[in-house]
UniProtKB/TrEMBL annotation:
Keywords, alphabetical: Membrane, Transmembrane, Transmembrane helix
Keyword Membrane: yes
Species of the source: Brevibacillus thermoruber
Region forming the signal peptide: none
Transmembrane segments annotated in the record for this chain: 6-24, 36-61, 67-84, 128-150
Protein name: Spore cortex biosynthesis protein YabQ
InterPro entries hit by this protein: YabQ
Length: 190
């Protein structure tokens, strides 16, 4: 392997070390904001490091066909050290500002959706409901008035109607009783 390829590999691995440092800070900012159980945090830690190692090895395969040598580790450590000394605090501040902006943007989008979509729909729903309630009350008032008027107009005939109803009930009761007796007598004859 030529010196140029080795130098290129060390530079790429230094960049990988810096990227791993950024990934580490990103991971800790997000897991620090969440309240996850310790066992789940352990699983995420293992997944983070496995993913980081897989990514580094993938890049190493692309750069120098996956040949692992001691200078590669030095390059990664150097890149991570430079990142943590120079850029870690600024990156974390930037990341927190991005998270804060995303939260603000999310709340703003929800407010806009609430003002432009949800509230008008609720307003129309309430308006339709009030209109239907008014129409129902008006119709029931008209029917109630009509019913009272009909009862008032029919009140002279009410006594006659009750008397007629009682007569019809007695006759129908007698008919059913006679019919039962006749039916039972036919059964007994057989």
């Amino acid at each position: 392997m030529s010196i140029a390829v080795q130098f290129q590999t060390v530079l790429v691995m230094s960049a990988c070390g810096a990227l791993m440092g950024m990934g580490y800070d990103t991971y800790h900012v997000f897991t620090g904001r969440s309240r996850l159980p310790a066992w789940l945090l352990f699983v995420f830690d293992v997944l983070f490091w496995l993913g980081s190692m897989g990514l580094v090895f993938f890049i190493l395969v692309k750069v120098n066909d996956g040949i692992v040598r001691f200078p590669i580790f030095i390059g990664m450590l150097f890149g991570a050290w430079v990142y943590f000394v120079i850029g870690s605090k600024k990156y974390i501040q930037f990341l927190r500002a991005v998270i804060k902006f995303c939260k603000w943007l999310y709340r703003t989008i929800l407010r806009v959706i609430d003002l432009l979509v949800i509230r008008p729909i609720l307003f129309v729903y309430r308006l339709v409901f009030m209109l239907l309630a008014f129409l129902y009350a008006a119709v029931m008032t008209v029917f109630g008035f009509g019913w009272k008027l009909a009862r008032f107009a029919a009140s002279p005939f009410a006594r006659w109607g009750r008397h007629l109803g009682k007569k019809m009930y007695r006759k129908s009761t007698g008919f059913w009783t006679n019919w039962k007796n006749w039916f039972h007598s036919k059964k007994k004859q057989e």
